[in-house]
From TrEMBL:
GO terms for molecular function: ATP binding. It is a multi-pass membrane protein. This is ABC transporter ATP-binding protein. Pfam families: ABC_membrane, ABC_tran. Keywords: ATP-binding, Membrane, Nucleotide-binding, Transmembrane, Transmembrane helix. It is found in: Cell membrane. Residues 361-595 form the ABC transporter domain. It comes from Streptomyces bohaiensis. The chain crosses the membrane at residues 38-60, 66-90, 143-169, 175-194, 257-280, 292-316. InterPro entries: AAA+_ATPase (IPR003593), ABC1_TM_dom (IPR011527), ABC1_TM_sf (IPR036640), ABC_transporter-like_ATP-bd (IPR003439), ABC_transporter-like_CS (IPR017871), P-loop_NTPase (IPR027417), Type_1_exporter (IPR039421). The keyword Repeat does not apply.
Length: 600
């Protein structure tokens, strides 16, 4: 229990960002701006229905007083029925338009969130929890809908009804109105209570985010969890978050529950007093029965919108709590915010060399740390000539994968420069740079989906013949021939249905399709069997034609073929050269080779 809790705290950060504090109603405006016309129509309809509502007691009063005086009231009754019908139709149209706007706001928020979530700078993904991001996209955005549908417009029509009812009551009987004002005191208290809902709502959504994260973590690592017999502990962690959401939900429920009866009793007390005082005035002949009935009807009518407005205010606060979490992600800069350094446009690598021809890669005194205070690469320098094959070797944690990440510009160097064909990669847009590179990451180089989907990620326009050719070159045809689904055979979550070697070769096939002149391959650390290894080497030979290859190698079989081997140790390049040369000159390389029984 303690272990899981501290782990989750460590990866969590605090849900709400320091940058986005409590948000006000103005923060909603940008999301409503595209819908202003419809909202205008909705407002007009709201005012119309509110007016219709207010006219009803006045018509009833005329009917009652008319009946009392023995006059014909057929016309009045017909008018009353028509009014009810029109008001009903207007409110139906208004509700539909309102909900359409609400859905529209949710849609655009989701689109913005999705676009931003896939374009954050790499360090954001290193420290954020996937599940928490997911919760913002799915559940927080949903809460914004009720702000539009329930919150804003209920407030507006509430105000109209309230003002109208007060005015009519004053006209009907100022004395009785003075009595009702006493009932309003309770309403003020209710609004104060509703204000506290925003904080409780943010807390509830944060707990939901934690719960999604905990679930995502346990399920994506289900084999580890099972093997460690940690199902119970992980379940408890999920339950702990669920209980947190439950408690925050209860706090909201208590606040809301308190608000309703407070208002209702205020109305009840006020109406009893009004009936008592009004009844005696009717008996004394100072007031007609119609006046009194209309007055009581208006009293209830006035309390209804106050009650609704308090509920709407609660919805608004709930939604603003969710908006705060959404804004926190939307306020993050995109990776491309610092895409190209300013200054003269460099000669593009595409123009420097004919398209598709191999490119040179150069590291010039590169120092880099994920945390600037703690470099993981120090003064790294090497050059990979165009069309050559270069292997990065050395103990794990030495900085080999980081080196590949710098070429892709997943991160930018702290000092020195990474150059492709002589151009500093920071002078290229990331899109242009990445278009030149095929990258095969170490552990999960394929995505959930089918073989076809995985091949088409970078080249959506490739036809089946091209896909089959790429699979052939990658020694993977047996995969599609074996399965009746062929190219549409599923690969499982992160390629779980494939072996480690098949995943790597599928990713290689993908880079073959792109024709990218540079290939970065992070070899899986897991041992491949001799046949998979042979297949991988043949696939690499196919890839190596017309390409510059940079491979993080764990198996010396991959290394002996290389034109150049670079030995990393603890963030520094400690040796470089060919296999035979390094066996003689580098004790670290000799040791690595000896472990794999290639030298004695
Ligand atoms: P290698 O590929 O040689 O095993 P890496 O480049 O993966 O080495 O890692 C070098 C160092 O950087 C290690 O100490 C590792 O803990 C750290 N590191 C790797 N990736 C990250 C990351 N995304 N955030 C912070 N530190 C990292």
């Amino acid at each position: 229990e303690e272990l899981t809790a501290s782990q989750s705290d460590g990866r969590d950060g605090d849900g709400a960002s320091p940058g986005v504090g409590k948000v006000g109603i103005g923060a909603l405006f940008p999301y409503l701006r595209p819908h202003l016309k419809v909202l205008g129509a909705v407002s007009a309809l709201s005012v119309a229905t509110a007016t219709g509502l207010l006219a009803q007691p006045m018509l009833i009063r005329s009917v009652l007083d008319g009946l009392h005086a023995g006059a014909a009231v057929g016309g009045l009754l017909l008018a009353l029925v028509l009014l009810l019908l029109i008001a009903g139709a207007a409110s139906a149209v208004r509700d539909y338009l309102l909900h359409r706007t609400g859905e529209g706001v949710v849609l655009s928020v989701r689109q913005q969130l999705a676009a931003r979530m896939l374009r954050l700078p790499m360090p954001e993904y290193d420290c954020r929890r996937t599940g928490d991001l997911l919760a913002r996209l799915s559940s927080d955005s949903t809460l914004l809908r009720s702000v539009v549908t329930g919150g804003l417009m209920e407030l507006l029509s509430g105000v109209v009804v309230l003002v109208g009812a007060v005015a009519l009551m004053l006209v009907l009987d100022p004395l009785l109105f003075a009595v009702t004002v006493l009932g309003l005191a309770g309403a003020v208290g209710a609004v104060a209570v509703a204000q506290r809902i925003q904080g409780a709502s943010t807390a509830a959504q944060e707990k939901l985010g934690e719960m999604t994260s905990a679930t995502e973590r346990a399920i994506s690592g289900i084999r580890t969890v099972r093997a460690a017999r940690a199902e119970e502990r992980e379940t408890q962690e999920i339950n702990r978050c669920a209980r947190g959401a439950y408690r925050a939900g209860l706090r909201i429920a208590r606040l809301r529950a308190f608000v309703g009866p407070l208002m209702t009793s205020a109305v009840q007390v006020a109406s009893l007093v009004v009936l008592g005082v009004g009844g005696s005035r009717v008996a004394a002949g100072d007031m007609s029965v119609g006046d009194l009935v209309a007055f009581v009807a208006l009293l209830f009518m006035m309390m209804m919108p106050i009650l609704q407005a308090v509920g709407a205010y609660a919805d608004l606060q709930t939604g603003l709590g969710a908006l705060r979490r959404i804004e926190e992600v939307l306020s993050l800069a995109e990776e491309t915010a610092d895409d190209r350094r300013s200054g003269p446009v460099p000669v593009s690598v595409d123009r420097a060399a004919p398209t598709g021809s191999p490119a040179a890669i150069e590291f010039d005194g590169v120092t880099f740390g994920y945390d600037a205070a703690d470099p993981v690469l120090r003064e790294v320098a090497f050059r990979v000539p165009p069309g050559s094959r270069c292997a990065l070797v050395g103990p794990s944690g030495g900085g080999k994968s980081t080196t590949l990440a710098l070429i892709e510009r997943f991160y930018d160097v702290d000092r020195g420069a990474v150059r492709v064909d002589g151009v500093d990669v920071r002078d290229l847009s990331r899109a242009e740079l990445r278009g030149r590179i095929g990258y095969v990451e170490q552990d999960a180089p394929v995505l959930a989906g089918s073989i076809r989907e995985n091949l088409l990620i970078a080249t959506p326009e490739a036809d089946d013949a091209a896909l089959m050719a790429a699979l052939r070159a990658a020694q993977l045809t047996e995969l599609v021939e074996r399965s009746p689904a062929g190219l549409d055979a599923p690969v499982g979550e992160s390629g779980a249905l494939l072996s480690g070697g098949q995943r790597q070769r599928l990713a290689l096939a993908r880079t073959l399709l792109t024709g990218a002149p540079i290939l970065l391959l992070d070899e899986p650390t897991s041992n491949l069997d001799a046949r998979s290894e042979h297949a991988l080497r043949q696939a690499l030979d196919a890839v190596a034609e017309h390409r510059t290859l940079l491979i993080v190698a764990h198996r010396l079989a991959t290394v002996v073929d290389a034109d150049q081997i670079i030995v990393f140790d603890n963030g520094r390049v400690v040796a470089a050269g060919g296999h035979d040369e390094l066996t003689r000159s580098s004790s670290l390389y000799h040791e690595l080779a000896a472990h794999q029984l290639l030298v004695r």
